[in-house]
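User: Can you write out an input/output pair for a complex, sequences first and structure second?

Assistant: Here is one pair. Inputs:
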Amino acid sequence: MRVIAFIIVCLTGALLLYGTTEFPDWGDPKSPASLHVSNYYIEKTYEDTHAPNFVTAVVTDYRGFDTMFETAVIFTAGLGCFLLLRDFREKKEHYYQHIPTGVILHLKDEKKSLPVGKEFGYMDKEWVPPDLINKTVCRILIPFIQIYALYVVAHGDYSPGGGFQGGVIFGSSLILLAISYDLKTLVKRIKERLLGIFAALGVLIYAGTGVLCLFMGGNFLDYGKLAPLLPGHSDHIRAYGMLVVEIGVGIAVMAVMTIIYINIVSEGRHDEGL
Amino acid sequence: MENYPALIVVAPFITGLLAGLFVWIEKRLSYPIVLTGLFVSALSAIQVLIRVIGSGPIQYKLGGWSPPIGIEYRIDLLNAMVLCLVSGVAFLNLIASYKSALKEIGDRASSYFTVYNLFITGLLGVTITGDLFNLYVLIEITSLTSYAQVAMGDRDRGPLASLNYIFIGVIGASFYLLGVGYLYMYTGSLNMADVAVLIKGSQGSSTVLTAFILCILGIWIKMALFPFHVWLPNAYTYSPVIFSRVVAPLMTKVMVYIMIRLMITVFGYDYIFNTLHLSEAVVWLATIAVLAGGVMALAQKNLKKMLTYIIVSEIGYMVGGAWMGNQLGMTGAILHIFNDALMTFALFLAVGNMVYRIEKVDITDLKGLFGKMPWTMGGFVLAAFSIIGVPPTCGFFSKWYLILGALEKGAYHFAAALIVSSLICAVLFFKVFEICFFESGSHGHEHSSHGPAVIEEAPVSMLVISGLVSLSLIVAGCYSGTIVNTIILPFLK
């Protein structure tokens, strides 16, 4: 079997190499890929859309329909994680901490539970006290990371960045919170329900913008038709449209990142994480 | 309204997402929302089909950008037909499988409907698009959602089947993507019609040849043509009923559609049959696929698994017909996309009804089922006759075209394989009928010792749809001349 697999791999490699024999030179300005449609994008993007960053314009306007489904792919990944991993069953054993004294209690009877509040707090099985330095540094860092994430989302049509990158940065700030404190802190701050709503809402903002264009009499995702709805220069309407969908992408990616992290590290129980 | 083409894809997409939102707010709303989306999609698909028959292909520019700058939807007779098929089957299945989804998936059913709609969105988007890369993105959505849905099936084997499916599916999709990359290197365009114009006359190009091989291999892996079929039987057998009912009729057929689209629209007959001379080799491969699928089906003990091997065999029919290189063969292949989707849907509806009542569908578990579930079995018999190819069911007519095409080409081995496979199907199904009809279930004392094993007929919603689809097999058979004359022949001209 191994020999056959090896032969197949070699054949595929040979095929790929054979295919490259006619490739244009690396970086050749005369290659078909840089002559056919790319020239149009480079020359006309600013005129068409008034977005200075034409990579963003290609991604969210000229080929915005692909990007909508790419966002849907990410949403599906999160939803798949939730459907397959989420485990609503109660844990058999419970650990509590008596907050005033710091004593840890272990309840083996699954039916018994203690009132969680000022006196008792939930506790992980392999709990180590969060490191003071880590906690403090992360507490200071997280707001800045989040502001930077918002900047990356908002500046997508001016500089490198956009919804995917900004969403990932925002999501990672939440994951950092979960790592430096514990998973419960994160889940307490941002409810699962909220994340679920955000994930769907983000993609809906994108698709909804497209539908709005339909109602305004244009084709799907034809941002140009949204001009009457927004103030400001109607030249910039396409750039505004891009910003709106980028925000949608950012929200969806942020929520999905967090959903995937929470479900994987806690095996779907949302109690103990890394 | 000229936005019907967008609605076909966007309606199930948006309603799927809305259902995903409402899961967290008001669970009960998610099912009606999803159903509405599929209904709108099916209506728009029918509108588009009527319009395409009336006034020729429709072009829809997404974002208002003309191709090749932007993405376009291009709908001609072939994909208008497939669109109606996909949206219709998805809508009917959602009604028919509602109860079984609640039973199998339980409290997660409401979020499951979101995945279901995204899956259908993927299939519709793949069918409607005129852009090579857009097609890849939608294949990704289709695959990702099907991995998730397979894993939600059988508790023990579902996840493993899904894992196998992921490994092979990812290879298939990346082959296709790589092929598109090679095409882009050569042409600088992603639009199908544009690429077709640009590669015309470059018969000897090694880049185009590599792109062609990679794209076709990728699609073959995704459609589970014989040596690449290993993922299919387990994935379809261990998935939840609601999913296997929709994936079995649609997934492979949509992939066959993509293959035909690539052959006709992108690479062109001339390139495939006159430059590369691939017809002979692929028809032989299809012949082996037809026979191997049939033989492996004979070895199965589980009814659902047996049917999945019949699907593998049917894929061979369509691939063989499409690569025959003549009009009769292609007509047969396209007609078989339509007919096979209906037949498989009818079969899986009936099997789903059985699973709903008796849970395990090993062939020995079916004893005496004719008496207990007469309507379900009636539908099953009709669908089985159609698979075997008994006139006037529709299965007969597409097989007829395929055999005529094979004879015209002189591919007698393929014609013989078709006939042998019909015989194998006859043996298979009559074995099942015999057990269901003549062996009475009350003899099995080990069954009655488990308690009151009273089997009833399936719920009315499931029965009605199952019956309607089974009857439609005869209707489709009677009208296959109309289908060929109004849709397939004008398309091939």
